[in-house]
């Protein structure tokens, strides 16, 4: 297994801290909590035991392939990053090659990137594919790779590909190596609630791949993110404050990293070895400033109004509404939280137009609507905006 030990692992902090100890705690906090970057060290990756086991089964089985899908921000890329570190070191014939997809990538661009260091009959594969138009050439090239090795090609952020011809060609390539097993494993990772969202209505892609859905993290897994890191820092987060961070994160590891980091940094700035309510409140204020700019802008677009001042409250009620496994909720699910936020009874007519507006281009849209009239269901288009909305609601005293 890859050695990923921290520079700080062997440092023991004294009971009484001086300036250097506080500086070290600050540095550790910044190193261990990374809200904007996928985890790339196995020792820092927590939970997801079922998904890891499913992917390892795919890797070990000849002719097996996988599609990892789920909401944005739930840890799909982190899972792909640490996969090789979960393989026993005695297994030496596996070669992992991972690349991120870009919107402009064609089918040949994708394979040129992962095969950049390879040659085909003396010609660099990237040069060979530059002017190629025949999709079957890619399987032909792959079939010439060293048979003593098993190649695992991981295409991350596949949802960024918009060209349907590229999606179809990738699906056909996966199907080929499913029908004719070789030393090739393809793992596609992307945002989507289903394989159809990633590939379109390809007739067989769902049958020739292991479909692995990444759900939001459980409370226990979010808790593990925090409790695995704080002992090394030397500043504790008591149970009640930790539960508050877990609730605010809503199953998204990036927000757990962000809020926990800012909570710890605030305690460190006050030279407190134990975080309290003031630190979490400060973290929420700071977190709303440091969240992704796209989330901040989406919130502003959704809630701006010169006349009607309850758009923020209705959007917060949507974020707090009960959801099914697909993230869908109904108007009736919004009613209860909105009554609590406004501290008065409300009926559907009081917020129906707000829900409709959130589905309109003029407000993002921030929600998508499915179903039939009087039975509509709603879903956040970008799921990570939900914890951001909750943080803003807490910052502004709405909850």
Fold and architecture overview:
The protein is 46% helix and 11% strand. With 399 residues, the protein is an alpha/beta fold. It folds into 3 domains: 48-214, Rossmann fold (3-Layer(aba) Sandwich); 218-290, Helicase, Ruva Protein, domain 3, CATH 1.10.8; 293-395, Orthogonal Bundle (Arc Repressor Mutant, subunit A). It has a 5-stranded parallel beta sheet with strand order 2-5-6-1-7, with helices on both faces. The protein has a two-stranded antiparallel ribbon with strand order 3-4. The longest helix is centred in the middle third of the chain and has 17 residues, at 253-269. The radius of gyration is 24 Å and the shape is globular. Residues 1-11 have low confidence and may be disordered.
Indicate the structural class. alpha/beta
What characteristic shape results from the CA principal axes?
Answer: globular
Helical fraction equals 40-55%
* CATH class designation of the largest domain: Alpha Beta
Strand content: 5-15%
**How would you spell out the order of helices and strands?**
HHEHEHEEHHEHEHEHHHHHHHHEEH
For this structure, the CATH topology of the largest domain is Rossmann fold
Tell me the CATH superfamily of the largest domain.
P-loop containing nucleotide triphosphate hydrolases
Low-confidence stretches: 1-11
Total of DSSP H or I helical runs spanning 4+ residues: 17
In the residues, how many domains can be counted? 3
What's the rounded overall pLDDT mean? 90
């Amino acid at each position: 297994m890859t050695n990923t030990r921290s520079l700080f692992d062997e440092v023991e902090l004294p009971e009484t801290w001086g300036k250097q100890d506080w500086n070290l705690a600050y540095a550790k906090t910044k190193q261990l909590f990374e809200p904007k970057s996928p985890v790339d060290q196995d020792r820092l990756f927590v939970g997801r035991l079922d998904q890891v086991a499913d992917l390892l089964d795919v890797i070990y089985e000849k002719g097996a392939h996988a599609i990892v899908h789920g909401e944005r921000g739930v840890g799909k890329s982190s899972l792909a990053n640490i996969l090789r570190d979960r393989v026993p070191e005695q297994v030496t014939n596996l070669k992992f090659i991972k690349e991120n997809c870009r919107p402009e990538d064609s089918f040949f661009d994708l394979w040129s990137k992962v095969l950049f260091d390879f040659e085909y009959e003396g010609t660099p594969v990237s040069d060979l594919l530059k002017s190629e138009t025949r999709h079957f050439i890619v399987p032909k090239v792959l079939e010439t790779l060293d048979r003593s090795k098993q190649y695992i090609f991981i295409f991350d952020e596949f949802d960024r590909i918009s060209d349907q011809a590229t999606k179809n060609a990738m699906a056909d390539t996966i199907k080929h190596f499913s029908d004719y097993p070789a030393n090739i494993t393809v793992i596609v990772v992307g945002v989507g609630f289903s394989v159809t969202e990633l590939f379109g209505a390809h007739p067989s892609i769902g049958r020739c791949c292991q479909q692995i859905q990444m759900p939001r993290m459980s409370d226990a897994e979010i808790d593990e993110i925090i409790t695995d890191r704080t002992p090394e820092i030397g500043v504790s987060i008591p149970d009640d404050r930790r539960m508050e961070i877990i609730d605010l994160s809503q199953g998204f590891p990036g927000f757990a990293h962000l809020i926990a980091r800012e909570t710890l940094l605030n305690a460190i700035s006050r030279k407190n070895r134990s975080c309290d309510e003031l630190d979490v409140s400060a973290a929420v204020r700071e977190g709303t400033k440091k969240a992704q700019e796209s989330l901040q802008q989406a919130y502003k677009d959704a809630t701006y109004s010169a006349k009607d001042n309850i758009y923020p409250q209705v959007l917060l009620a949507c974020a707090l509404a009960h959801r099914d496994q697909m993230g869908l909720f109904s108007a009736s699910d919004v009613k209860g939280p909105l009554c609590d936020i406004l501290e008065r009874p409300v009926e559907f007519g009081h917020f129906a137009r707000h829900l409709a507006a959130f589905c309109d281009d003029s407000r993002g849209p921030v929600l998508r609507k499915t179903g039939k009239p009087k039975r509509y269901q709603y879903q956040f288009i970008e799921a990570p905006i939900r914890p951001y909305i909750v943080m803003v609601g807490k910052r502004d005293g709405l909850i």
